[in-house]
Amino acid sequence: MQITVLCWNFERNGADDPAKRLRAHEKLVSLNPHLVFRQEMWGADANGNAIMYELEDVLGLRGWLGPQSCTAVFADPRVFRTLREWPNTGPMWVLPPTALTMRYLPAGNEAIPLAVASYHLNYASPTNRLAEAEWLSTWADKKWTTPDGETVRMPALFGGDNNGYPAPGLDGDLALPELAKINDQPHRLHRSYIGPNGTRLMDTRPDEALRTAGMEDVARQWATARGGDKTAVSRTVNACETHGPDSRIDRIYVTTDLLDAVTGVDVIEVPLDLSDHHIVRLTLDGERLSDILNRQPIEVAA
């Protein structure tokens, strides 16, 4: 079984346009997802969560809406079951994540669950963005007690809008913007920080923080050691006059124990009249995922 995970910041949740919202989520349906990380869920809590239930119906998935309708997770209930919600996300979040403990059902009831989170780091403050990434890392440190009484760390799977860049150095990844070539001056502040020598550097610190905490950017991994496919690191946001060149600010991170289950990463481009962000797609080998969650050795082909 192949598991499909999608991550998408759908701009303003359609901006109160039901036809646009339907079109967007029919696009997600066409990709046959089992797990969806959504950002910018504005208005989904209005009228008794009416839009959230509407989206569940369109997607054919069960949904969980995070605090302040900033983010959401949708999951195929035949594949994933939530064991716990984490509504207290820490003090630093401007746009709180949706964080859950989820059972991957094909792995069985004695398998270790997954910590999953849909997140949206702060747009305007690189200082706050770094703190949010540090708090996000706490879901890569959640513990689970196995049936035999052993306490272990759960594997983690996160997807979101980072509002910052991946660290440079990967062949094929997009180059960091040049600060002076970003025409919108407030945006220069939003996407940079003051480095040790007093000059402004483009903000890659959340990516570096998550990777320090044992998370890996699956696109980066797939484009190098895992698969060598440079399309994995395609843009997720188009260049524009004010904000600078193409960028890859939407990313999916996993703890390193999940990397052996990855079978592909790519970016599904959507037209700009639908959203200002593209869709990141991760595919996982379901049998390998089960083995990892049951702590079985992965067979390596000869």
TrEMBL record:
UniProt-listed Gene3D superfamilies: Endonuclease/exonuclease/phosphatase
Record-level Gene Ontology MF annotations: endonuclease activity
The keyword Hydrolase is annotated on this UniProt entry: yes
Domain of life: Bacteria
Keywords: Endonuclease, Hydrolase, Nuclease
Keyword Nuclease: yes
Protein name as catalogued: Endonuclease/exonuclease/phosphatase family protein
Organism: Streptomyces coffeae
